[in-house]
Amino acid sequence: MPEPGFYFGALYVSYAFTILFFVIISLALYWLFRPAEWVYGVAIVGTSILFVPLSFRYSRILFLYWFGGIRYKESP
């Protein structure tokens, strides 16, 4: 059973993923299309909803790998 601090740590990794998605989508829209301001908001909210399952899963995996101390050994 993971400790409660594990979920708080994974929350910070998920937050970093979300900010990364925001920056990538915003820069791509700015450089490619230069749309109106409301399009940025719709695109950011849409992509954040779309990527919630990936961010949720991979943030926990990365946090456990980086700070959990679990190392897997290859079988011979």
Could you explain the architecture of this structure?
With 76 residues, the protein is mainly α. The protein has one domain. It has three helices and no strands. Helix 1 packs antiparallel against helix 2 and helix 1 packs across helix 3. The longest helix has 29 residues. It is elongated and about 55 Å long. The mean pLDDT is 89.
Q: What topology emerges from the helices and strands here?
A:
Blueprint: H1 4-32, H2 37-50, H3 52-67
Helix pairs in contact: 1-2, 1-3
Summarize this, please?
This protein has 76 residues and is mainly alpha-helical.
* Helical content class: over 70%
Number of helices: 3
Mean pLDDT across all amino acids: 89
What's the alpha carbon Rg, rounded to whole Å? 17 Å
Q: What's the oligomerization state?
A: single chain
What keywords describe this structure?
76 residues, 78% helix, mainly alpha, 0% strand, elongated
